[in-house]
Amino acid sequence: xxxxxxxxxxxxxxxxxxxxxxxxxxxxxxxxxxxxxxxxxxxxxxxxxxxxxxxxxxxxxxxxxxxxxxxxxxxxxxxxxxxxxxxxxxxxxxxxxxxxxxxxxxxxxxxxxxxxxxxxxxxxxxxxxxxxxxxxxxxxxxxxxxxxxxxxxxxxxxxxxxxxxxxxxxxxxxxxxxxxxxxxxxxxxxxxxxxxxxxxxxxxxxxxxxxxxxxxxxxxxxxxxxxxxxxxxxxxxxxxxxxxxxxxxxxxxxxxxxxxxxxxxxxxxxxxxxxxxxxxxxxxxxxxxxxxxxxxxxxxxxxxxxxxxxxxxxxxxxxxxxxxxxxxxxxxxxxxxxxxxxxxxxxxxxxxxxxxxxxxxxxxxxxxxxxxxxxxxxxxxxxxxxxxxxxxxxxxxxxxxxxxxxxxxxxxxxxxxxxxxxxxxxxxxxxxxxxxxxxxxxxxxxxxxxxxxxxxxxxxxxxxxxxxxxxxxxxxxxxxxxxxxxxxxxxxxxxxxxxxxxxxxxxxxxxxxxxxxxxxxxxxxxxxxxxxxxxxxxxxxxxxxxxxxxxxxxxxxxxxxxxxxxxxxxxxxxxxxxxxxxxxxxxxxxxxxxxxxxxxx
Length: 601
Description:
The chain has 601 residues and is of the alpha/beta class. Helix content is 50%, strand content 11%. It has helices at residues 2-16, 20-33, 38-50, 54-67, 72-84, 88-104, 109-119, 124-137, 143-154, 157-169, 176-191, 200-205, 207-222, 254-268, 327-340, 353-357, 395-400, 442-445, 448-460, 475-479, 497-501, 516-524, 535-541, 550-562, 564-581, 584-598, and strands spanning 240-245, 273-278, 304-310, 313-319, 344-348, 364-367, 380-382, 401-402, 434-438, 465-469, 488-492, 506-508, 529-532, 546-547. The strands form 2 sheets. The protein has an 8-stranded mixed sheet, sandwiched between helices.
């Protein structure tokens, strides 16, 4: 046995060094001495896979799995071999077996999320089969991991319903930070369009709304906040305002710019005393087994009381950058707010837990930063776009709804730039059509369906190019697999996006919830938008720029590229849309009127 293990050790050293011929010879020596040796079979199969012989790899690694069915690594590599032979169902099941073994061993987030990501490449039927495999063999008692993992695999909202029901039925089984972490994990997956089956809208207005309310109540109860907070009496005036946002991250983060802009307008244009509270309360540190693991960024220099500057002005801010959500941090926030003694609290963004903790003690108004149902316990909940309604909302929230338009402040126009300045080649004397895709979460939002649509558009328009603006990590690798990858350009974060607008034919929107800010800026510069009728982009752009389905999407984009008169009309309509709905000063004026109403609501 010593000789076999020594030979295997030498073989693996050759393998790591890339000397696969020598490694293969030694692996076969081991098998000759010990037929069926799982490690030798497995590693010989890996060489087959690496050498472009996937069928051989399936046979060899399959034999290894039969000899050692308890190894996650063997199941995972069998999955890779099966994938390479086009056997997607069997590949998904092999990855699922590896995933189950890792999970039942208490493996951390990284490998679990990576394996889940491999399964999520497949069609819905294969994903459901993999989820059923994991569910049947799951042996841990962690309800957070079980149901969040199953949702990640197959996107069935029923798993999140089971998770929320477990917490609603017995909240004392879970710590406050754990409840928060699971909430933000579910909210982010739904925001990014992770639901593949089930009624996500009904879940969000039902179970998730109840979960959110319980989360706020349990936080207040267990952290003894009700007796700590000061209760404000109605004052009939709005002079002092606290604006609480979930997080301020600085330049390049659109919600940060918007929060600052609302605050500075309230202060400079309407003479109110304003302070921004930056609690960083989005459960930054993982508190349970919820997958996928996520981590919200913080800006560490935003610490304590300070003044931040932008737009030629300065606004006071109190920031809590500690990477935790616990009683000490919440008490410090409560004490600061009570010391400032505001007449009204503006909850900037839905699911604003810290603002909602004050909902029984002070007037709170929710200003959503996205379309759809904002989870909020504020006295008044405002709309995101002027055409928004409370249709389909829970009855108590519908009563608190008020019409509103979020409004926008344009970034500086910046100097003229050419395509080559952005790294985009010219194509012909007029450059050819150039379509823009803009966003901060395009790794998640620009999925396979959208990339297939991009490929189809470029097939149809051989002179066209696509420019993708915004920080991305995984997207370039997926773009590389497109037929027309050479005409899709990832630009990263673009400082002067309005100069890019002046080169663009149209703005293309993936199916997503967000994107409102980048859409507003495109409209202001006369860039026509192409979007389906859902999410923030459709709300901001309006019906003129929405289409019914992918076929209509392609027709609209092609028409904008091929019909200059139509493109000119759409450009004029884009500017008119922004002029009619984009005035933030009017939005802030209306906010103050609602703040006065909230004093007695």
